Every structure is written in C-alpha cells, then in structure tokens.
Amino acid sequence: MRDFSVEVYTELLDALLRAGYRFQTFAQYLRAPEKKVIMLRHDVDDRKLHSLAFARLQHDKGIVGTYYFRMVPQSYDEGVIREIHDMGHEIGYHYEDMDFAGGDPHEAIKLFEKHLDKLRSVVPVSTICMHGSPRSKYDNKDVWRHYRYQDYGVTGEPYFDLDFRKIFYLTDTGRRWDGHKVSVRDKVDNHFGLSFHSTPEIIDCIDRGALPQSVMINFHPQRWTDDYLLWLREKQVQTLKNSVKYWLIRFRPSPA
Known about the structure:
Largest sheet: 7 strands, parallel
CATH topology: TIM Barrel
Structural class: alpha/beta
Number of domains: 1
Order of helices and strands: HEHEHEHEHHEHEHEH
C-alpha cells in the first residue's frame, strides 16, 4: 500500500479497532477519559473535502474525531462544518490570530473572539488548537500569555491541557511520522521511546500490542489521497516545504 493514501489510513483505523481502543473527541476526553483511548485530531489546513471524506469514513466505522477549522477559504466551509458535526464529530477552532494580527496580542484577541463567534454561529465549539503558521515568526499560542481562553467558554487546548508524559502524541507534520526536525511548532517531548517513519510501522506496533494506552494522533487530511497524481504532487510539495522549514528552524531566533 502507498503511504498517505486513504487505503492505508483505513488500515490504521481497522488496526486500532482490532486492538480494542475506544475513540473519543478531545472534548469527551477532557470530561471523562477512557483508559485505552485514541483521540483522532484533524487540522483542516487545506482541501476541506478531504476532511469530509475522513469524517464519513470514521462515521461508517462508528468512530468519532475532532476537526479544527481555520478562518481561511481553503478550510472554512459552513456546509462541510455542519455535515461533519452532524455525524457526531467535534468541531474546534484552529486559531492563528497572532499571525493575522502581526504579533499584536490585543488585536489578536479581538480577532479570536470574532472568529470563534463566527464558528459558533454554525456549530457548538468548546475546544481550540493553534495553527503552527510555520512561515510566520509569531507563535499563535503567545496570545495566551496575555489572555485566558477559559474566559471565552473554551474548555481545552491540546498543547496546554494534555499531559504528553502520559499521552503519546503522533503527528503527520512534514508528511511523515518522525517530522519533528522539520516541524516549527507542532511537536511535544516524546516520553515513550517510540518513533515511526511510516504508517505501516504504526500499524505493526498496534498489532504487536506495543502502542501506548492513551494516544492523540494528529492528521492533516489534505496530505492523504488515493489519487496518484495528487498524492505525487503533495509529496513533492511537502519535500520542498520540509527543506524550507528545516532552515527556518535552524536560523530563527529562539523565543525568549
């Protein structure tokens, strides 16, 4: 199977089901966490219809996930958002307001409130997650150095409200599962001694019973397709992006 195809994604879900994992949205986990649990997180950065296809596939298998939408045309689509929500999935705000505001936290919080209200006019929203904005010098999480998201009726943000010493975090950032060297902000410390490059490696780990009990898996659905030409284009574009991000990380000043 070709990695980063819908076919291999389906195999991953089936392996998790065989292994007896329960699936919870991020909001559900915060309220009442299961002991053996998978949180499927989806950052809807682009190609929103890919996220819709993922949501339908999960729904057919009785699985729920969380989908974080940006306030840009390639992500935000009220019809897609409603359909995903109506299937029982969680919708959240993929905020990047520090980037939009040019690093001004006071302008950023005004945009955050406006955008959150807009999304909430479509579906209920209780959790948020930062967008990495790798080309920007601003970290979108920095708005919370000045404000509290809890004051806006938000119950959780994964980078603040999950203990990644106890929850294993996997992300396909960089179109690979070991992309921490080319990830500007989507990374956490690995306390489990596990590392994977490909999805089949993860499936093998699941089948051996070696995957941790509590896992958050972050997907960028625009990267996953069975269309070979689109798959090849995405691979080529991501290889170029990884090279750019590598040098950005190397030469960008460390935060104070």
